[in-house]
Amino acid sequence: MKRIVFCDFDGTITAEETFVGMLKHFTPELSAKLMPEMYALRLTLREGVRQLLESIPSQRYPEIIEFARAKVMRPGLVELLDFLDAEGVPFVVVSGGVRGIVQTVLEPLLNRIHAIYAVDVKTSSEYLQVHSDFEGETELLAKVPVMAQYQADEFIAIGDSVTDLNMAMQASLVFARDRLADYLDERQKAYIPWNDFVDIRKQLTSRWKNH
Q1: Residue 24 domain flag
Q2: CATH number of the domain that 103 lies in?
Q3: 26 within domain boundaries
Q4: pTM (2 d.p.)
Q5: What sign for the dihedral angle of Cα 32, 38, 42, 43?
Q6: What angle do CA 57, 117, 198 make, to 5 degrees?
Q7: Count of the separate structural domains present in the chain
Q8: What is the pLDDT of residues 133-165, one digit of tens each?
Q9: What angle do CA 82, 108, 181 make, to 5 degrees?
């Protein structure tokens, strides 16, 4: 494989923080306490996200899916997928959020996406139980081991926040916005700023036509 694109979901594909918004809505007090710690990198995503999700009663899971259903995708994603299809480049979604939310929002485009990696939740107990096939030392869904499942000459990462930091540090080409851009500035890792998927398609078109 020559190239592959790995794209975050929450606040990247969605125009607003869907997963974070859901946690704030369903676990307001615990979110107010734990989220600043995660953003400051004092609490791992693995610990923080698990605590938050497992504090939500299982009977509220249908409400969580409904909460996600109305979320708007950032402009230009369909056109980016058209472009990647034409170039033969797979588009892989990697999310530190809940698979059910990702699939609900992306439902019209599921057949266009090469694979989705996300956190699974079980609703058989009183509270949600979290499971991830790619749990890492600090992440509930470790994105670098997901990338390692694939072989390509160029790994392209698209993201916006702390969950994308490790992925971005390993990628050959990074599109970063918001908090992720700040983290990469601190680490002197090069990236291309972006607002929507129209920007990304334009950048990739101009880069790839010369290679």
Answers
A1: no
A2: 3.40.50.1000
A3: no
A4: 0.94
A5: positive
A6: 110
A7: 1
A8: 999 999 999 999 999 999 999 999 999 998 999
A9: 65
